[in-house]
Design goal:
The structure holds 2 protein chains of 2 kinds. Chain A folds into 2 domains: about 100 residues, no CATH class; about 140 residues, Immunoglobulin-like, CATH 2.60.40. Helices cover about 35% and strands about 25% of the residues of chain A. Chain A has 4 helices and 10 strands. In chain A, the strands form 2 sheets. Chain A has a 5-stranded mixed beta sheet. In chain A, strand 6 and strand 7 form a beta hairpin. Chain B is mainly beta. Chain B has a domain of about 100 residues: Cupredoxins -  blue copper proteins (Immunoglobulin-like, Sandwich), CATH 2.60.40. In chain B, the strands form 5 sheets. A 5-stranded mixed beta sheet of chain B has the order 7-13-12-9-10, with no helix packed on it. In chain B, strands 14-4-16-17 form a 4-stranded antiparallel beta sheet, with no helix packed on it. The radius of gyration of chain B is 23 Å and the shape is elongated. The N and C termini of chain B lie far apart (about 75 Å). The chains are: A alpha+beta, B mainly beta. The interface between A and B is medium-sized, with 25 and 25 residues.
């Protein structure tokens, strides 16, 4: 019985590793300049975890095969050094593995979070609220108007709380439900949440950032492929969370300029 | 002597005909008029409904916001004109006031009805809505309404102007005008209103627009006449 189980174990281990090794899981297309770093990290993690997993299953199967059917009362071998050494050994092995992943992966993290956006990046403000994302562009004057939270009025589409009557830079601000960006241009997102926690996630950009109420967060990316991609909220924010999404529309520079001009009218 | 009788008879005939002319409608007088604006109203922006494709596909061009709706001749639509003083409270009619969610918008944008009158909320869309009126005097509630579910029935027991929003679709916006008597009208494309069946008395007519606030005028009705009242709101460009 034990030997049969050992064989089944090996079959399951190999069968589940096969699709991973053969790259049969499709990743969404990568349209970001830093996307390959994330994908590389994913692959490295898979390799490390895969080797440990298959190795552990094979060792387990070996011990099952060797020691099953032995007469009751026959000696079981202890781990050399006893329980303490076993624990230290496991600690060190797993610890080294996790440390290695962290060291190898730090570049992917640092590239997104520890590098400043370039000075000429396109500035866009993002506001997440129940249950929509809204995006604000500075408009032809290049300046964002002041936000007055007490003036927020959804009904008259003043989502950001602008005061164009008294605040001149706010008059030409463009507020859109769609994040429209030109291709191959660095975009600097300045993000804040209006009410509860939300999260901005574009899988093709390999970018995800929580909105924490009260914090102003900064994110930058460069999109490399024209197209329309989904921005979904990935932090449970209420009963409309299932429906909370917007679209990232990456356009050619010419189309983007036309869109901006159209919005300003 | 005969002269005096003729004169008295003549006066009586004149008075009777004068009364008859002045009271052609024994049911009461009417206040009617128009609501207009001066200046430049702000431009309504198109609504992006792309996150709700079942609604977005109902429009050839995206619809615009409705907080200020104008009509030809500088008139304002969706203005509630009502008698705010001088008329007694009326019992609520038995018919319901219907508020429909269609194409991810509220139809009508402003719904006027009476205190304790039944309010019926209908969802004609293929998506769930969560209607959330936001009163200050009445009890606040919000209700989820998946597609295909029966209408929601509610009522308000205090007179109030209540903004209405949808918790799922942030661009959806409407208004309830809960009024104390039956003398009210909401202006349409012509910007005009008519308040008939007013017994003689001194009335305060008030016009309310959701962005511009309200204005009042005093009108006295003495018989069956029609008095004309014009409201002019100052439009704000922003």
């Amino acid at each position: 019985m034990g030997k049969f189980f050992a064989v089944v174990l090996v079959i399951i281990a190999v069968a589940s590793a096969y699709p991973i090794v053969m790259h049969q899981f499709p990743l969404p297309q990568d349209i970001s300049t830093h996307g390959h770093l994330i994908d590389d990290q994913l692959n490295e993690t898979m390799v490390e975890a895969g080797i440990s997993f298959v190795g552990a299953q094979l060792v387990l199967a070996f011990f099952l095969w060797s020691f099953t059917g032995r007469k009751p009362g026959s000696a079981l071998k202890n781990f050399p050094g006893g329980a303490r050494v076993l624990v230290i050994f496991a600690f060190v092995i797993v610890g080294l593995e996790v440390l290695a992943l962290g060291v190898m992966g730090q570049k992917a993290w640092a590239n997104v979070y520890f590098s400043a956006p370039s000075a000429d990046a396109l500035q866009v403000q993002v506001q997440a609220e129940q249950f929509a994302f809204y995006f604000r562009y500075p408009g032809p004057d290049g300046k964002f108007g002041q936000i007055h939270p007490e003036k927020i009025d959804e009904g008259s589409q003043n989502y950001f709380g602008l005061d164009p009557e008294n605040d001149v830079p706010a008059r030409d601000d463009i507020v859109s439900g769609e994040l429209v960006v030109p291709v191959n241009r660095e975009v600097h997102l300045m993000m804040h949440g209006k009410d509860v926690g939300h999260s901005f996630y574009v899988r093709e950009l390999r970018l995800q950032q929580d909105f924490v109420p009260g914090l102003d967060l900064s994110l930058h990316f460069t999109a490399t492929k024209i197209g329309k991609y989904e921005i979904v909220c990935t932090q449970l924010c209420g009963l409309g969370h299932y429906n909370m999404k917007a679209y990232l529309n990456v356009m050619s520079q010419g189309d983007y300029d036309n869109w901006l001009k159209q919005q300003s009218q | 002597m005969q002269m005096k009788r003729v004169v008295i008879a003549g006066v009586v005939v004149l008075a009777a005909s004068a009364l008859a002319v002045a009271n052609p409608n024994p049911a009461g007088g009417t206040i009617s008029g128009k609501v207009t604006y001066e200046g430049t109203p702000k431009k309504m922006k198109p609504i992006d409904m792309s996150k709700e494709p079942s609604c977005a596909k109902m429009y050839a061009t995206p619809p615009t916001g409705e907080s200020v709706v104008t009509g030809p001749g500088n008139v304002l639509q969706d203005v509630v004109v009502y008698i705010s003083a001088g008329a007694p409270d009326d019992a609520a009619p038995s018919s319901a006031a219907v508020f429909t969610q269609k194409g991810c918008r509220y139809i009508p944008h402003v719904l006027a009805f009476q205190v304790n009158q039944e309010l019926k909320i209908v969802n004609e869309d293929q998506t769930s809505h969560n209607i959330h009126p936001m009163p200050k005097l009445n009890r606040e509630w919000n209700k989820s309404q998946p597609p295909g579910t029966p209408p929601i029935s509610e009522k308000y027991d205090k007179a109030e102007f209540i903004p209405v929003k949808c918790n799922v679709h942030p661009w959806m916006h409407g208004n309830f005008a809960v009024l104390k008597n039956s003398h009210y009208a909401v202006t349409g494309e012509s910007g005009s209103f008519t308040l008939p069946n007013l017994p003689p008395g001194k009335y305060t007519v008030t016009a309310w627009q959701e962005e511009y606030g309200d204005q009042s005028q005093e009108v006295t009705i003495s018989g069956g006449e029609t008095k004309t009242v014009t409201f002019v709101f100052k439009a704000k460009p922003y």
